[in-house]
Amino acid sequence: MSFQTDFQQLRNYLSEHIIGQAHLVERLLITLLADGHLLVEGAPGLAKTKAIKDLSNKLEADFQRIQFTPDLLPADITGTEIFRPEDGSFSFQKGPIFHNMVLADEINRAPAKVQSALLEAMAERQISVGNQTWPLPQLFLVMATQNPIEQEGTYPLPEAQLDRFLMHVKIDYPDETAEKSILKLARAENTTEQSGTTQIEKITQGSIFAARKAVNEIYMADSVENYIVQIIMASRKPERYGEDLARWIDFGASPRGTIALDRCARAHAWLKGNDFTSPDDVQSVVREVLRHRLLISFEAEAAGMTVDKVIDTILERVPVS
């Protein structure tokens, strides 16, 4: 299918320009295909901003970066009513949220009111100002970032907002080989010559929507659907799979997690060029889908368990249908 070829070329292009972060590139494309939003956690300087900016440059889409700070106001995101003295009327001036691709940089540095304004935009694809509601573009993706190093002066994201993110991706520093390639790429980008890189045409919004339709229609057997459901059930009723799991998990994933796991598994399979979804596709994306949707107990943390380890335990104990 030509759409698959276009997106595979896009992934190759991004991998050449965002070196050492192939996992982030793939998850960003899955988020785009599954029509969701992405939360990325990583130290500064790991190409998070570059990833979504380079993606926007190769799509028929506009890009906006919003730097979240403690003094940010909801109107700084949504926009506000402007008074026009010439005729004594008010007109709405749209804020930076009215773009196709939005980077919410260091989202946890903004207070609750700002996060609630972003929550409505992410969940409802609209924003409300006064007694009016304004729809957002049909192509709308928020990539939010968090810095795991500095937590002083931050506002933890509420569970309701975390659940709106399709996936939560954690990224780390590149290895030695990738670091050397980054040096060469940085030098090349400072010159007019960038030989050896792939040049591709922009993907239109119509092609993106058609690709999303193809992803939604990809075949998934009943056994794979049952596998997804049983993974979610294991997070809600962990006592079925061991007393230790029951002690480790306080709250499981919501139905939104089931839907996200289905969409991401389909998108993962489609990106590989397959025309069906397998349990391997589910296992490949389950950590990013459930990482921010499970709440583990203090007992689990005291035992050295992390959310990822709990998810791995669920995968070990839930049989593949």
Automatic annotation (TrEMBL):
What is the designated name of this protein?
MoxR-like ATPase
Tell me where in this chain the ATPase AAA-3 domain is found. 37-167
Origin species: Oleiphilus messinensis
Q: Where is the ChlI/MoxR AAA lid domain positioned along the sequence?
A: 249-313
Q: Which InterPro entries match?
A: ATPase_AAA-3, CbbQ/NirQ/NorQ/GpvN, ChlI/MoxR_AAA_lid, P-loop_NTPase
Q: Which family does it belong to?
A: Belongs to the MoxR family.
Pfam families, alphabetically?
AAA_3 (PF07726), AAA_lid_2 (PF17863)
Keywords from UniProt, A to Z, are: ATP-binding, Nucleotide-binding
Does the keyword Aminoacyl-tRNA synthetase belong to this entry? no
Q: From the UniProt record, which GO molecular function terms apply?
A: ATP binding; ATP hydrolysis activity
Q: Which domain of life is it from?
A: Bacteria
Is-annotated flag, keyword Acetylation?
A: no
